[in-house]
Design a protein that fits this description.
heterodimer, A: 297 residues, mainly alpha, B: 317 residues, alpha/beta, 6-stranded parallel sheet, 11 helices
Chain lengths: 297, 317
């Protein structure tokens, strides 16, 4: 068990760009392919039990980590004080290693994602199907961004003296232009479009078609007006009219807005979030115990 | 109230309460899954958003246009798997009528799982040859690149039906309004409460909150799903009862929540004697402590130390 939870530099920790790490990476790759080949050749009726067992033990680690008392105020020089802490220290030390498994898996899957993207678009491009021009733009953008970003990365690594705007070459300028000058700006443009969509969606939602829509419109109007300049005028007017009558002070727009937010909106959202949280636990349990299967629905 | 010495960091603020509540939910769900195998009279109320799935697929079939499905922006977690589970029902219907589908993913892991699950559906229907490998696509893992990619696809293909289910963020309204602009029938659900109002505003049907998780039980009536749905309902009833008891106790000023003088309060993860008694506040309640966990750095625990030569290497992350 110590194999999974190593606090000292051990099997799971390799210094970057060393032969030791490269050998480990190649070894793990070979081991992974062998494991995959074995799994593919296992009879399909056994495969689901193997997958179920792996899922169960992987989930069991996190369940244990959640329920087992975690070490309080642990320092690097501490040793476990009792048998309970032996387990809690082990779990605590194993978390980074187990989390790294997820990161490695994600990195492998990213390659699959890129493969899917390129297969769809290059296929369309070579067959000159409908909208092939968009696929051409994507292919050019993909090649340019990958080339210049990697070139820029290795250039900056080899020449640490390169700073913002000083000692730049074509690769640095192009990487900057493509990412900061284009990708970021395109994303900002997409984000800014939401403002217009909110307007058009709000127009449809606030049309008085039913009693529910009227209540929605009324509540929205109060909240909107309470954030505008009109609130100062109206609240001042209510205060002057109310005098010592505390009840009338409730008709200030800012008070009504707070009431809507605190007594209508927040409890509704909390109710929805309770439901979602419990649903997530339920789904997680079904996944952990392999009760969730594609053929069920 | 906590004892003098908490048994673990996660118990430092609330004692056993938070963990026991989670454990209670787990027990309710598992017990009802077992119980549902012997019961066939369990009732699930009508959910319009799920009834609309058949209409949406039928419409797409009549128009000969594709169905677009998006399982959100999140990573591969329970939310994404639930979204894909619902999509398998959509795909099953679409496969029977040879209606084209496109499932757009923002996460490579979700893409891989979705591809397997959709392929399984075609296999189960005995029409594996109709499965188009490109019907499940990875678009981009960058939020607005993904939004642009999906919106472009909906516009170019003139989608007849769109299903947006999963974890959505700012891009939710972009999807919904784009689909609305091409006249697509939309069924949506977001586990992010901040985005649910946008979907309600812009989509035809919305699954709100845990309706998203009820979909599996509603569509399949499988004992496993129906049982877990009832377990969820039991958990919600327990929470509601706790809230009602809390309201009554607080109103009547009885029990732990009474507005009384307290002589000790939580400070630096431990209960300490106050210099003078003071009235209890919201910050002193277990519920407040559960949602505002405190740091345990000041808690002193006496432990044996590592030998000096190995102490430097120790991580103790």
């Amino acid at each position: 068990m110590e194999f999974l939870a190593q606090t000292d530099p051990g099997f799971w920790f390799g210094q970057p760009e060393t032969m030791d790490l490269r050998i480990k990476v190649i070894g793990c790759l070979v081991f992974g392919f062998v494991l995959l080949a074995v799994l593919l050749n296992v009879p399909s009726r056994w495969r689901k039990y193997i997958v179920g067992a792996i899922t169960f033990f992987a989930g069991l680690f996190w369940i244990l980590q959640f329920f087992w008392p975690q070490p309080l105020h642990r320092s690097p020089t501490d040793l476990p004080a009792n048998p309970k802490e032996v387990v809690s220290f082990w779990l605590d030390d194993a978390v980074p290693v187990v989390s790294d498994f997820t990161s490695i898996l994600t990195a492998m899957l990213t390659l699959l994602g890129i493969f899917s993207l390129l297969r769809v678009h290059l296929g369309r491009l070579f067959k000159m199907q409908k909208d092939w021009a968009f696929s051409l733009v994507l292919a050019i953008a993909f090649v340019c961004q990958a080339t210049f970003s990697l070139w820029d990365y290795y250039d900056r690594k080899a020449n640490p003296q390169i700073t913002a705007g000083h000692g730049w070459h074509i690769q640095n300028y192009m990487s900057d232009l493509l990412f900061d000058g284009m990708v970021q700006q395109f994303e900002a443009a997409m984000f800014s479009m939401i403002a217009f969509y909110i307007l058009s969606a709000a127009y449809r939602a606030f049309r008085v078609r039913s009693p529910e829509a009227s209540v929605l419109l009324g509540a929205a109007l109060i909240v909107m007006l309470s954030y505008m300049g009109v609130v100062t005028q109206w609240d001042g007017f209510v205060k002057s009219m109310a005098g010592s009558n505390q009840f009338l002070l409730n008709f200030q727009l800012s008070v009504i807005r707070s009431w809507i937010k605190d007594f209508v909106q927040t409890p509704s959202i909390m109710g929805i979030e309770f439901g979602i949280g419990i649903g997530t636990i339920s789904m997680g349990l079904r996944l952990w115990l392999s009760l969730e299967k594609t053929g069920n629905i | 109230m906590l004892g003098e010495v908490p048994i673990g960091a996660q118990y430092a603020d609330t004692g056993w309460f938070g963990v026991a509540a989670t454990f209670m939910v787990m027990v309710f769900i598992l017990y009802n899954i077992v119980r549902a195998h012997n019961r066939h009279d369990l009732f699930i109320r009508r959910i319009p958003g799920l009834n609309a799935i058949n209409d949406a697929v039928g419409r797409a079939t009549e128009m000969g246009k594709p169905i677009v499905m998006v399982p959100g922006l999140g990573q591969l977690d329970a939310i994404a798997v639930q979204a894909i589970s619902i999509f398998t029902h959509v795909v099953r219907l679409a496969a029977r009528f040879t209606t084209p589908i496109v499932l757009c993913c923002a996460d490579p892991a979700v893409y891989t799982v979705a591809q397997e699950m959709i392929r399984d559906v075609y296999l189960q229907e005995g029409i594996e040859d109709r499965y188009d490998i490109d019907s499940v696509r990875f678009i981009s893992d960058r939020q607005f690149a993904f939004a642009a990619g999906v919106s472009g696809l909906v516009l170019r293909d003139q989608a007849a039906a769109c299903f947006f289910m999963g974890a959505f963020y700012a891009e939710a309204l972009i999807f919904a309004e784009t689909a609305n602009s091409v006249g697509a029938i939309q069924v949506a659900s977001s586990t992010e409460t901040t985005q649910t109002p946008f979907f309600i505003t812009a989509c035809d049907y919305v699954l709100i909150g845990d309706e998203f998780y009820a979909a599996s039980a509603y569509l399949s009536r499988e004992p496993v799903f129906v049982g877990s749905l009832i377990g969820q309902d039991w958990s919600k009833i327990a929470i509601i009862v706790a809230i009602v008891i809390g309201v009554i106790m607080n109103t009547a000023q009885i029990g732990a929540l009474k507005l009384n003088q307290i002589t000790e309060a939580k400070s630096d993860a431990a209960y300490k004697q106050l210099a003078a008694p003071r009235p209890i506040t919201m910050d002193d309640t277990t519920m407040s402590l559960m949602f505002n966990p405190q740091d345990d750095k000041t808690w002193k625990v006496e432990r044996p130390q590592k030998p000096k030569d190995t102490a430097d290497k120790g991580a103790g992350k």
